[in-house]
Amino acid sequence: MTRKNILTAVSIASSLLLASACKSTAAREEQQAREAQREASEKTAEAQRDAVKESVEAQQKANEAQREANEHASEAQRAAQHKAGQAQASAQEQQREAVQALAQQRDDYRGKAQRELNDLTDSLADLKAKAAKTSGATQARLNADIRQLEMRRADVATDIEALDKVASSAELDRRASELDKRIADMRDSLRKVEQKI
Q1: Where in the sequence is the domain holding 127, given as residue range(s)?
Q2: Is 3 contained in some domain?
Q3: pTM for this structure?
Q4: CA 35, CA 41: separation in Å to the nearest integer?
Q5: For 11-33, what is each residue's pLDDT tens digit?
Q6: For 197, which DSSP code?
Q7: In a domain, 140, yes or no
Q8: CB-based contacts of 172: which residues, under 8 Å, 6+ apart?
Q9: Letter string b/e over residues 40-66, b meaning 16 or more CB atoms within 10 A of that residue's CB
């Protein structure tokens, strides 16, 4: 073999070795690139899974917080309705008691006033009997006074009946005071007429 042939053979062998080495390096680099791509894909997939997991957990926490807020709101509303119901029931009970107290007060006063009016009616009947035994001008004056007393008695009787329409304790007190004064005035007038006999 000649030197030229040897050089050519060495040159060809080097080229083949270099080509083979280049091929091997390119294959290795390609393999590494694929490996890097696979690792990147796995990391991306893992990051996406983590992001989805965090998103689901965050949504679950938000849902739980909303549920708790709804429960608190419902509980507060129930408590407010309960308190409102209690307040209304209490107000109705107080109103019922006030109505009963007014009815009792009205009945008590009506009974007292009616007894006093009955006493005056009896006294007026006695006065009529005494006036019937008189004669002349005395009888005429007595009869006129008795008619006036009977009209006043009828007015008082009407006002006693009207006590059923009284709607408040203050109004009952006012009417009772007026009736007491009118009954006392009638009693005084009746005495004065009796003194004329």
Answers
A1: 105-195
A2: no
A3: 0.59
A4: 10
A5: 665 555 555 555 556 667 778 87
A6: -
A7: yes
A8: 102, 105, 106, 109, 163, 166
A9: eeeeeeeeeeeeeeeeeeeeeeeeeee
